[in-house]
Amino acid sequence: MQLNPYSGAYLSDPAATWRRILDDPGRALYAEDLGLWLISRHADVRRALADATTFGNALTLAPVYEVCPAAMSVVTQIDAPPTTAAADPPVHPRTRRALRATFANTAERAEAEYGRIVRRRVEDLVSRLVAQQGRRVDLVREFTTELPLLVILDILGVPDADVDRIRRWADGQVALIWGQPDPDEQVRLARGLLEFWRYCQDLVRQRLDSGVDGDDFISRALTYRDDDDDVLTVTEVASLAFNLLVAGHETTAGLLAHALDAALSSPHRWRALVDDPRSVPAFVAETLRFAPAIDGWLRVTRRDVTLGEVTIPAGARCLLMIGAANRDPLVFARPDRFDPYRTDAADHLSFGHGPHFCIGAALARLEAGIALTQLAAAIPGLRLSPEHRRSFTPNVSFRAHDALLATIDIHAPADVPEATPAAPAPAQAA
Ligand code: HEM
């Protein structure tokens, strides 16, 4: 079959394609144009995410197209050792232990360690929006991509002055790996990525030179390492920072934009959040299910794998279609309906599953919860501008809004009908 993530129907609205693939009797379909096997059913995607012996991660961060030789010669200079999404056993269990020890990955730890940072950044960004009362703003540029980037810089102890170049490098990495850049662009993006890697190595070197006594992630990882390369090498600390600076914001930026898009597309939904902040966690969970920021994630088969009638050969790259799995009718009632009151949203696979389960899931939920609550409280009349048209950046994995044009109105509109008065109590966040 053909799947074009870079233009046309799938790019503008993937739901119909997900439905068609889910309805196909084949449990794995080969997308010839992409050279990827598509796995879409919830049970199959879940199993592939969990089974590191059969579905490896070695190529998860490798470009999905044949990189031109000039760009490849730059890419090969990026000697960052795999530590997270691209690491397989025996390295991954060791680096994952290090991450769990140094990065707050439960709701309680994230609130205790990052709550203050997130609230401060949200307050700052929201008050900048409030100051634009009556104007049209792009929420993607002024809020959804800003917040997670500033938060992850704070957590890693990176100066605000570097925000623009980190944004450029991180966006470039997403485009280089999962986009469709032409050869000149590949070279430019690859050079940026190499610079980014050297920057991360410098960050770690500076911490070592200045004495490791801070509470930022890099200092914590160096302390955890305790000069023992069997625990973690200095280069692996730099590689963790390299990964977190991208994973920590490109994804949560997507979640925030999808949540605001879903909320503002219907005045009733936004009004429900304004009227009842307790409904925010369930709204975030349903956003994660319905519109995952990463809707396809890569694995490579380490042996022949048979799914139903189809055998995927060893060494094949597979696209685990998280977006489709989250709409599987065997798991979700009325899957194509956005319903913040559903009770099955928690079964989504948007943060992955198993040994590589997203280490930042708790932080992402914390950011989205605080952001939506404070935005709804401060700008109850926020609404999409009439000229807003939904469009996404072409990419195999990341579904990111190009823009979210909205009008700032700090006054609650008088004519919006009361929101779902009989709505059931919000479900626990997924
Ligand atoms: C809505 C926001 C986010 C989404 C949708 C998301 C999604 C994902 C997915 C799909 C995976 C792969 C899981 C697997 O292979 O089973 C993953 C892994 C990962 N995520 Fe997230 N993520 C988000 C936020 C974050 C944040 C805020 C951070 C860090 C600050 C982060 C750091 C990571 C890391 C380090 C991994 C690799 C973990 C490993 O391989 O052990 N993510 N994430």
How would you sum up this structure, described in words?
The chain is of the alpha+beta class and 430 residues long. It has one domain (9-407): Cytochrome p450 (Orthogonal Bundle), CATH 1.10.630. Helices cover 48% and strands 8% of the residues. It contains 16 helices and ten strands. It has helices at residues 9-12, 15-23, 42-50, 69-75, 91-102, 107-130, 139-144, 146-156, 163-178, 183-210, 217-225, 234-264, 267-275, 280-290, 322-325, 361-378; strands at 28-31, 36-39, 55-56, 136-138, 297-301, 305-307, 310-312, 317-320, 383-384, 405-407. Strands 1-2-8-5-3 form a five-stranded mixed β-sheet, with helices on one face. It has a three-stranded antiparallel β-sheet with strand order 4-10-9. A hairpin with a 2-residue loop joins strand 6 and strand 7. Helix 11 packs antiparallel against helix 12 (234-264), helix 12 packs across helix 13 (267-275) and helix 12 packs across helix 14 (280-290). The longest helix has 31 residues, at 234-264. It binds protoporphyrin IX containing FE. Protoporphyrin IX containing FE binds next to helix 12 and helix 16.
The description of the largest β-sheet is: 5 strands, mixed
Q: What's the architecture in CATH terms?
A: Orthogonal Bundle
Q: Based on CA inertia axes, which overall geometry fits?
A: globular
Alpha carbon gap, first and last residue: 33 Å
Number of helices: 16
Spatial strand arrangement across the major sheet: 1-2-8-5-3
The radius of gyration is 21 Å
Beta-strand percent range: 5-15%
CATH topology, which one? Cytochrome p450
Bound molecules: protoporphyrin IX containing FE
* Secondary structural class: alpha+beta
